[in-house]
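Supplementary Methods S3. Complex input for the tryptophan-bound model.
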Amino acid sequence: MVAASQTTGEGWSSRTAFILAAVGAAVGLGNIWRFPTLAGESGGGAFVIVYIACVFLLGLPLVLSEIFIGRAGQTDAVGSIRRVATQSKASPGWSIFGGIGALAAFLILSFYSVVAGWVLYYAGVLGADFVQALLAGDPFRGALAGESQAQIQQRLDDMFANVGLLLVVHLFFMGLTLFIVARGVHAGIEKAATILMPIFFALLVGLVIYGAIEGDMGEAMTFLFTPDWSKLTPAVMNSALGQALFSLSLGVAGLITYGSYIKSDGGLGPTSAMIAMADTSVALLAGLMIFPIVFSVGLDPASGPTLVFQSLPFAFQTMPGGALIGFLFFMLILVAAVTSSISLLEVPTAWGIGERGWSRTKSAAIFGGGAFVFGIFSLLSFNLWSDVRILGFWDIFAETNIFDTIDGFTGKIMLPVGALLTSLFVGWKADRNLVRTTTGLSPAMFGLWRFLIAWLCPLAVTVILVTGLFPAILGS
Ligand code: TRP
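Predicted complex, serialized as structure tokens:
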């Protein structure tokens, strides 16, 4: 046994607890909202296959690398990288990517909470609708009975126009995240994950079965798993790679931070593989939950970010039990979002504790409060400030509102830069014996992992970064 995190003294109570928390961090809006949106827009199968390849060839080696740094460093991301660098006789200056990661996590949290707020609102609307159905003695009726499709779609626009409402749900979600993180690793994050993740899986399996019975599973399978290679443009490969990083929570030192709370010894290889497999399975299951419903009522799979908010409530209206199912569906997304947002807040919070010496409550309050305030800029991009272009001088952001600019800047630039520096540091600088003993990889697995992290990751991630920054290269 090695001592718990040296600066915070905190740790997971078991390996299972760590895996649940890490899977909880990985599984989020990225799986249930972003993945189906991108798969739908990119034509399905070909995107899905590239995404899966990216998860296992690039994502998995990076997951292992981040957990390794945290496990070996035993403190916040910056301190952990510094310690591994010192032990490996590399420059402590590498720790800068821990700082960039903490900043990226803060920025992602700011808009993640805004989207989670929309989910909260929809969970409330459908929850109230279900209560009405119950009171009317018809618990298995469709959702939002009596509303036309136009009215259902109008709800989203009305929500976007209602700044007060958006602020309230954003505040509520961020407050919940802050509350959990302030309670600590064991009593807050671990407890939330061990209670919420089983609920999440039960809901997910139930909803997939419902989709299989009530929806068009055959067409969904064809759409998701039959590749039409003509749709595989460089832009689609680029978004599949980016999605793999986002979904596995890579590039912002999140898994360094969670890895630093591992107290027990034991191989990190199988643990990392479980995290990657669980995250990918959830994304695919989310596709198998959403697309059968989409196809059975003839909705357009390529309707983009509003698919989940505008299209599905309409589908729930025409399906038996839709009021209940619609409510459960948004609760599912909400649960997934909470276990992810706490991981985002934990990265800067651990930095404040480890590098600044703040108390956990103070650090969580500073960054949670800060992300709430900063998130307001994203929130206003859907109404009052829809015309503001903060990075308008930069061609790739010339047309994007504040929300899309922060999303694009973190996703297209900060995550790949973080992943690139991680792979270079662990692949080339970290002491190989330290890596071997900490990860417990067999010689063969170590060789394979090292090839992927030292060669394939830097190359592939550089390609994403360059094509993301200079879309002209892709001819789009
Ligand atoms: N992976 C989460 C999702 O799919 C989001 C998330 C949590 C994240 N922590 C992260 C994304 C760190 C990038 C980096 O919703």
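The domain at 4-474 is CATH 1.10.4160 (Hydantoin permease). Residues 25-26, 28-31, 105, 108, 246-247, 249, 252, 254, 340, 343-344 surround tryptophan (CB under 6 Å).
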